[in-house]
Amino acid sequence: MNAITHLSSTATSNTALAAALSAVGIPLAEKPFVRVVGDGIRGERVVWFFEPQSSCGKYRTAELIAAWSDNAWHLANPEHPFAYIKAALMNRESLVTKIKQDVPIACISRGGKFAFLPLNASSQTEELFLRYL
Q: What does pTM read for this prediction?
């Protein structure tokens, strides 16, 4: 395997995948990442580089990178630690997305009373809440 093939088979720009690889004991390479800008890339992209296998020798980096996007692998290996890690990271991503879609609620207090008012409440609703404080 030449250096370019090795780097491309053990590298990812998916930070969630990089975290999952680290969680199963795959060490980062000597040069762990590069930050790439320009050449049609909006903003900046980070590419993570890993050693070819876990420290214990049990997991192969290229195989886990391929498994990450293969739902059939996860269905066939539901008890594999990597499948659990991916599920946890995907669940986190879904939860963060839900939080970002939600409307924050303001906590207003006056005279020892509290009201919780969505920031997108109508002026009529806001007046009603504030009247009771």
A: 0.75
